[in-house]
């Protein structure tokens, strides 16, 4: 059916940050033939339920955005849940899609699939060339397995199952928990509270010198749909059977200091920024090579400042019941 707008599309994980961005994208482009199921309606950990759903609904396209995600603290504390739940959800959805005759599926991974010491910027072919970052290795292994599941069904059954690997994402629907969140929502919340409490300074872990890449989730959604809708010949011309995944990022990074200064500007914080260099910095740089994505005709559109303003507005509007 292609891009005519009438494909029946199943967005797995539509209530998460990425899944809800995909739903916004489809609705804004006039595509409303979506299959959406909450966890109460369809538990993706339940293999039988997923199989029955796929057989009954037979979607034309599947966007696999469902995942158990979290920051360093969560990954360190619950490694068993992170590897088990992600492996189970991926296996259930991909296998059930295949059995139901679904030809087109796209799997959303993570940039943490690459080795801890991968050359920067990280190219797709860096996959499986070195040791992973130990703190989130179980999660990364699950995501690598998802890529290989897609490649294996393509090789054996001629399916068209694709994978995209996003950089650090932020935006509406993010997790703003004070301990379990990633750096962007954590800083937005901390600076917001500093403004409310008239705090003279905000302390930020580390020296502020590490460089990171940040992408607004609405850009990620647009890129994912773009990759899904590429014709088969174009997609295969820019990928390889054993490196079928595509990096999705902005291609631009900034220092943590620059990020903090932009968050201060967006939240209206006028106090002092203090960097606690006794705290760990982590990897000096993490940037995705997005050459392949650009060759396929897509580039990020939302600037860091504009994206942060959007994410902050969402947080302020939803802070009473923001996800904990």
UniProtKB/TrEMBL annotation:
InterPro entries: Epimerase_deHydtase, GDP_fucose/colitose_synth, NAD(P)-bd_dom_sf. Pfam families: Epimerase (PF01370). Pathway: Nucleotide-sugar biosynthesis; GDP-L-fucose biosynthesis via de novo pathway; GDP-L-fucose from GDP-alpha-D-mannose: step 2/2. SUPFAM superfamilies: NAD(P)-binding Rossmann-fold domains. The keyword Transcription regulation does not apply. Residues 9-234 form the NAD-dependent epimerase/dehydratase domain. Coiled coil: none annotated. It comes from the Bacteria. One of its GO terms (biological process) is 'de novo' GDP-L-fucose biosynthetic process. NADP(+) binds at residues 13-19, 108-111, 143, 166-169, 182. One of its GO terms (molecular function) is GDP-L-fucose synthase activity. The active site is at 139 (proton donor/acceptor). Its EC number is 1.1.1.271. It catalyses: GDP-beta-L-fucose + NADP(+) = GDP-4-dehydro-alpha-D-rhamnose + NADPH + H(+). The record marks 110, 112 as: Important for catalytic activity. CDD domains: GDP_FS_SDR_e. Keywords: Isomerase, Multifunctional enzyme, NADP, Oxidoreductase. Substrate binds at residues 190, 205, 212, 281. Catalyzes the two-step NADP-dependent conversion of GDP-4-dehydro-6-deoxy-D-mannose to GDP-fucose, involving an epimerase and a reductase reaction. Belongs to the NAD(P)-dependent epimerase/dehydratase family. Fucose synthase subfamily. HAMAP family: GDP_fucose_synth (MF_00956). This is GDP-L-fucose synthase. It comes from Desulfobotulus alkaliphilus. The lineage of its organism: Bacteria, Pseudomonadati, Thermodesulfobacteriota, Desulfobacteria, Desulfobacterales.
């Amino acid at each position: 059916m292609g891009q005519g707008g009438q494909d029946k599309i199943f967005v797995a994980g539509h209530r998460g940050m990425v899944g809800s961005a995909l739903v916004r994208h489809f609705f804004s482009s006039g595509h409303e033939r979506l299959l959406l199921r909450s966890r109460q309606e369809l538990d993706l950990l339940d293999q039988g339920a997923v199989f029955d759903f796929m057989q009954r609904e037979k979607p034309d396209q599947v966007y696999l955005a469902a995942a158990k995600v979290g920051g360093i603290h969560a990954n360190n504390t619950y490694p068993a849940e992170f590897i088990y739940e992600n492996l189970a959800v991926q296996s259930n959805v991909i296998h059930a899609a295949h059995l139901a005759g679904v030809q087109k599926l796209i799997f959303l991974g993570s940039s943490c699939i690459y080795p801890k010491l991968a050359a920067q910027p990280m190219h797709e072919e860096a996959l499986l060339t070195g040791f992973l970052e130990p703190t989130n290795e179980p999660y990364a292994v699950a995501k690598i397995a998802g890529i290989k599941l897609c490649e294996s069904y393509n090789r054996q059954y001629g399916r068209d199952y694709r994978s995209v690997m996003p950089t650090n994402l932020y935006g509406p629907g993010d997790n703003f928990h004070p301990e379990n969140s990633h750096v962007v929502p954590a800083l937005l919340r901390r600076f917001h509270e500093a403004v409310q409490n008239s705090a003279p300074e905000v302390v930020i872990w580390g020296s502020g010198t590490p460089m990171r890449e940040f992408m607004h989730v609405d850009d990620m959604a647009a890129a994912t749909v773009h990759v899904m809708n590429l014709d088969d010949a174009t997609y295969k011309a820019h990928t390889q059977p054993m490196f079928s995944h595509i990096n999705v990022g902005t291609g631009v990074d900034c220092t943590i200091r620059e990020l903090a200064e932009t968050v201060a500007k967006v939240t209206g914080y006028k106090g002092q920024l203090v960097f606690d260099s006794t705290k760990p910095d982590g990897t000096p740089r993490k940037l995705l090579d997005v050459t392949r994505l650009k060759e396929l005709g897509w580039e990020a559109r939302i600037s860091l400042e504009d994206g942060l303003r959007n994410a902050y507005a969402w947080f302020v509007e939803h802070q009473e019941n923001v996800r904990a």
